[in-house]
Amino acid sequence: MPLFSVIIPVFNAEKYLKKCIRSVLSQKNDRTEIILVDDCSTDNSLKICNYFKKNPFVNIIRHKKNLGVSISRNDGILAAKGKYILFLDSDDWFYPGCLKNIEKLIKKNPKTEVIIGRYNSNGYPPNNKILFKNNRSNNFTASEFFLYINRVNFRPMIIWHYIIKKSLITDKNIYFVDVKNGEDEEFGMRLLCSAKSISLLKENYYWHKKRTQGSLRYSRSLKSTESYLKLLIEYYKFMGKTKLSPEKKRFINECIRFSYGEFSARIMLHSKSEIKKLSLILKNYLKKSKLLLNQIKNKNIYSLLKNKNIFLNKNLVAKNILDVIKNTKFEFNQIYIYCAAIHGVATLNILQKNKYKVISLVDDNLDIEKQTKVSVDIVNGKSFLKTIRRKNEKILILVCQQTIEIFKNIAKKLELNGIKKRQIINVRF
Asked: Strands across the sheet with 377-380, in order?
């Protein structure tokens, strides 16, 4: 029986797929199988998969129609024979020798059910140092782990974090929800809340290639917004049927806050007809879901799910953002929006509708030539910091960042370049 099953969902990935597969084969670990799940690719991806088929450690699953990444990963799990499961995206790759490091950790902690590995990325933030910064141990009980991650204020939710004992997945029925976005967040929540023993792998094992340079490239499709709406309900369903410690509840509430933020930012950019469709989707989804409204502590989410009226929620979100501006305790005549992902664009939309003048969007991870079109200038973060000392004191910088640690880092950079604390406001949806 293999020790590792590496599941690689494949869809039109011909550019990086060879490098991805070879990064696993080059580990020279004869206890590793590779499961390639081709999701009806229309390029040369299947041809590349078949090229590697001659290797006895490579298995191929072929979908007759495009089913999405969640179903692809679930099919990979069902086919896996390994004791531990790893997920690898088709345009990413493993660090050399990483499987040996993982195997050493398993031998040291044989009861571990989830290993959280260290990854690097060409995107923002560049790595996940926060999780590994202050810990004195690489092995935790469930209670120890949640106390630790709540203390460092970090949610290890991305799918390439995990090396998972397969028995945990099958015994607890932990599979991916079929949604367009955020499926790994919800999967990670149930995974971590179900594990009894969790370990940290301090060596880098995974390289994630950011698919587009520039965080303004977001998905504003109806399917994407619908995904975060459904995930909110799934989180509350899990909380309602599972006995959880206060530490786990705190952790899940942060997951809920994140999904609600993603949903709220997106609804600001939808038309009236699209919001009507979303309200109908919400009503139909709630009919199929056993959800106890009295367990929902967040007033905004309670109102949204109780009334099933997304128009009301959109107005509330706009009011909350405007209240942040109105409560600013100094006079300003210029507004800059920093960290211009979908939250930045949504904030811009709200402010412009209410006659506020925004000078520009500022982004740390920006490819100027490939940007989503917006009605104001887009400025690279580094360029902005070089010129910020020449700005007057009547500027207000709205940092549209959902993660507190990242906001603190941005605020620190701004303060080092002459901006006062009162001029920097964190906008959270």
From this structure: 377-380, 358-363, 334-338, 395-399, 424-426
Which residue do the tokens 């590697």 mark? 52
Element (H, E) at 120: strand 114-121
User: Are the C-beta atoms of 68 and 92 separated by less than 8 Å?
Assistant: no
Please state whether the predicted TM-score (pTM) of the whole model is above 0.90. no
Evaluated on CA atoms 147, 150, 154, 155, the torsion sign reads positive
Could you read off the pLDDT of 212-259 as tens digits, one per residue?
444 444 556 889 999 999 999 999 999 988 889 999 999 999 899 989
* pLDDT tens digit sequence for 288-310: 888 888 888 888 999 999 988 89
- Every domain of the chain and the residues it spans: 4-208, 222-317, 324-426
Lookup: tokens for 415: 């303060």
Given the structure tokens 């469930």, which residue do they identify?
A: 142
Residues belonging to the chain: 429
Locus of tokens 């590792």: 4
Instruction: Name the CATH topology of 324-426.
Output: Rossmann fold (3.40.50)
CATH superfamily of the domain spanning 4-208 = Spore Coat Polysaccharide Biosynthesis Protein SpsA; Chain A (3.90.550.10)
Cβ-contact 414, 422 below 8 angstroms: no
From CA 297, how far away is CA 290, in angstroms rounded?
17
93, 207 contact by CB (below 8 A): yes
Amino acid at 22: R
**Measured between alpha carbons, how far is residue 320 from residues 175, 201, 302, 343 in Å?**
35, 40, 16, 13
Q: What's the Cα-to-Cα distance from 230 to each of 60, 74, 157, 395, rounded to whole Å?
A: 31, 19, 17, 38
